[in-house]
């Protein structure tokens, strides 16, 4: 990973800005009553503000402003250079970032309906697509030609960005979990960008890493502020956009798979959540306690142990994705299968997805089991987070 002086400045500026502005975000959250209060289905014993996205957004904005100033004044290489095969409107792309943050912030404050929130996410993705962030074709993995997506490129890109936003949102269930996973994924995508010579993706990803590290100061257990939807949606959308910036107009299959491997833990968690809720005849948007972090808590891990274990899993997947980027097709397949087997073994060993395998899944019984496990853990000083079905996303899922 080749880190230059401008990259260090971007990381540090985003980190310091987030450190400084997050306490302000707490005050703003309290002013708008965007607060996660203790309740019957909550473990947290005191009110916690949930507009953490303000600090993350501030870090990204300052880092982007510094990059532009450095290019104009100090002779830094410009980050506003798209791949030669793509035409990007960077100001319009920045608007899409502001929009997804706005959707999350409104949800944190006013608790939007699922349909309104989804509409806002789609609108944000539409603006990103309008900026030129679009995959027009895929390299045919079974031939030498290209598979043109034509009009399908628009819905495919929109679904991709909305999905990335929500997989981070869904994994956001323990102190520091989504923030740390996003930081690790950002490091991986930075390395991909450097190797591919993608200056725009490198600048945004290293800024994202800095913002996440700054926010972890307040968000790691015991958290004094939660990401909320404003932060979780912004992080997921940013990672999705960075992964698309890393590829050309015609994307190779490997280029599209690597970011999915890096985000493997939340993707696996989301997939099994959908299956689990469908088997229980639940709305897929309804919260339950079958997520990976809940299973780890039930297995006897405390919050910090569970979060660090998932961090390690994500690092392993990131290293695997980096290796795939450097080897031939045969080794790529072998590494991918190896990562798949290791992840499956880890999941089965801890019985993380046991409810999915039951013929009839009872979410109420699962909730009682989680609460009993949480109470036992509480005796040892652990404070697992809530799973209440509302918009306090950090402790919802």
Automatic annotation (TrEMBL):
The chain crosses the membrane at residues 6-25, 51-76, 88-106, 118-139, 151-170, 177-195, 201-220, 232-251, 257-275, 306-324, 330-348. Keywords: Cell membrane, Membrane, Transferase, Transmembrane, Transmembrane helix. It is found in: Cell membrane. It holds the Pfam family Glycos_transf_4. It is a multi-pass membrane protein. InterPro entries: Glycosyl_transferase_4, PNAcMuramoyl-5peptid_Trfase_CS. This is Undecaprenyl/decaprenyl-phosphate alpha-N-acetylglucosaminyl 1-phosphate transferase. The lineage of its organism: Bacteria, Bacillati, Actinomycetota, Coriobacteriia, Coriobacteriales.
